[in-house]
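Researcher: We're teaching a course module on how sequence relates to structure. For the next exercise, students receive a sequence and then see the predicted structure as tokens, so they can try to spot secondary structure elements on their own. Here is the exercise chain.
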Amino acid sequence: MPDSSRATIEPASRATLAVPNIRNLHRALLGLAIVIPALYIYFAYEFIAQDYRATMARTASDVGNISTILVEHAVRTIGEADSRLQGAIGDIEERGLTLSAQDDPKVNAILVRQVSNLPQARGLSAVDAQGWVRVSSMAYPFDPIDVRDREYYRFHVEHPGSAPHLSRPIRSRYNGKWTIPLSRRIDHPDGTLKAIVLLSIDLAYFNAFYRTLRVGEGSALTLARPDGWVLMETPMDESVLSRNFADAPLFRHARLASSGTYEVERSALDDSARIAGFARATRYPLIAAVSMSRDYVLMPWRDRIRDIILMRLFSILLVESLIVLLWRRLNELMATQDDLARRNDALAHSRQRYEELVDGIDGIVWEATLPDMRFTYVSGNAGAISGYPSRQWLSDPRFWLEKLGGGTSTPLPPFAPDGRTTALQPIEHHVVTPDGRERWLRSNVMVTATGRNALQLRGVTVDVTDLRLSEQRLFEVTHFDPLTKLPNRFTLLGRIEHAIALAARNKAWVAVILIDLDQFKTINDSLGHEKGDQIICTVGKRIQDALRRSDFLARLGGDEFVVLMEDFGDSVVGVEQLVERISRSFDEPIALDGRDLYVGISMGISLFPEDASDSKSLRRHADTALYRAKAAGRNCWRFFDESMAHQARRRLEIETAMRRATERHEFQLYYQPQQSLRTGQITGVETLLRWPREGGETFAPPEFLPLAEESGQIVPLGTWVLQSACAEAMVWDKEHGLPLRLAVNIAAKQIHHADFVAQVHRILDTTGLPPHRLELELTESSIIAGVDDTVCKLQQLKALGVEIAIDDFGTGYSSLSYLKDFPIDRLKIDQSFIRDLPRNRENRAIVRTVIAMAKNLGLGVIAEGVETQAQLEFLRAEGCDEIQGYLLSRPIPAQELIDRYARRTPQTAPLSTK
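Model: And here is the predicted structure for the students to work with:
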């Protein structure tokens, strides 16, 4: 019932109460008229300041990033040129050529070959000791040109040695083009100057690249030497090439840091305020810088500020106008308050009846006659709630039966005209609206008697569609997989429990078949998760089509499905037939975006009551069988047996023991020597991990290293190996005079670890091992995975001085592109290619090819697994650099390595060592 007290307040009293409220509103409006403009101005100022700081910070980040790109491009460009330069010098020296009329054609051929396919090169030339260009790749024969006044000639005359020199830009005396000379010196055996080989890098190459960056109007891109000489600037101004800017802000900042950003109020470029970023190369004496005009950078900011100020002024004006309008309206309200108080008395009684009627309304209010169910009254909100307007409720005599009564889940009971008022149970209606939507309505109904001894229904009907849908969605989320619409893990567990209870009572069997897609992560990563979801749905459909009507399929999540099989007798034949059908269903490819994709599946099967007596063990044993199927090569199926459980326990035992092995100092390092075929010296050792345990048991590396990879323990374990090996190598050097190169294998997860380079740097610092004595061995697969990250980290390691080797070369991806793109020093030929030498013709061809390719790329070669003298002689004849294997030595502990080699001077051992 409505609260009648709400209608008892006297009009005069209410008017008295309203006057102070209006006065309070006056004061509030006056405060708003002052506070709102102040707040608008404050927040506008804060936004402007914050936007300015963000604009400047974004610009500083942009110029810093672009300068890093420029220096990396310059290092790569000059590095490629330097590689060709060294190749030309190597060919000249190897063939014993001189700058003479007899050898000039051969030298010209070498220069032409080395400079071919090098877009940044303008030409490759050879200068004799007297300062005359004798041979050039640009023409043959070549008229000698005097270059004694050039900087590179004076530098090499005054600085003996083979270090490269990057000169200031010069204009070619042959073709008038601007170039940056990159040169190296060739000495006679007595150390006197023999010749200078010069590669001219085209400035236009840099200019073309810099223009593609499109940094923005008023920007400048600069490449310079740390001593203040500018090598390249875009936009190009040839006058800057003849001036030294060593005292400019760029070079002052570059002397203090390897990279950074700064601002100048008056730039030497155009006397304007500029924002600049720079990056300094470590491999070559280069500094790259990018600067942008501050006026150009702030131009969009000033436009935004103007718009903000105009918008704020308009908003303040609008708010103040509204406040004035409200002030006037309040004055009018006070004038009419007395009139409203008088009218309130007249409306009080009507309002009280209205409140009693509507206080309990939360739906359609209606009345209908019995027994024909004709509606005599329907509230106006009927159309919004039911989809049918109130006029249709009233005009259609069969509306209840055809629209509401036909979909009731609670039928109407028979009524007796006894004159009593009776409340009925709520009635639910399933209604289809004219536009085809489904709705569920619930009516709270009361039977009343009219004055003419007739019955009438009164009800309130509310929309409970959302409640019904929520209940349905909750059921689906709880029991079904949202992607495939198959039963989920929760539903599966209940079904297995029920199947086991039923089978135990009927002395029947139950099979649980766990299905997993092979290499699904690779598919997901390469095609994307959206395509992966399509494949999962297709796989679920194929499995479902292969099942019997009585079999039950569920998805556990990811790429795992489970089939529950009942009613197959007491023989596994039926189970085998089912898994064969499932397996055959994937013989056909899955069509995806116009291409065929073959998907393999592995299955593990466990049986009740043979393998387990409860659902948990049954699922665990199926998972163990699935793991065995995966280990057997995938795309197959296995029944669970007790040996699998033993292997699973063994695996768990190894994983558990591995977590404490480092703390207990159980791991040991062994070392296998590596010997030069040219000098006979022991040049290095490969570090190998061994795990002997108490009681004489030994875990073999193939047994525990894959588990370490899977569990992630390979990262701390690899760090321990690197730390321990570097420390021992320093002991060999300091105490026993045995300065060997130390080769350490690095797992894929190690190289991709975020702080791997920092760890290597820290270990080298703490142990004192010279970086060039450390060689990190990586497999081809670990290099190819995450190429961008790998390139970056290998370049950082090379910058430290660490050497990089490719282990087991030829057994992985064997993509030749990474051999030129990655900073690699050495290839290790896998022992599978050495084992049958020299008898096997294919292996001979492979080894010859690898050695020749490595030589052409300037890489060292070491052969693994050398066990016979015949293998050694073949490798020596083919030009292999080093060997490693049982012919030289088995892996041995550190002390035995010291005893065997430390007292040899030099560190040599016969190549026939057993």
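Model: If you want an answer key for the exercise: Residues 35 and 721 are 68 Å apart (CA to CA). Confidence is low (pLDDT under 50) at residues 1-13, 905-914.
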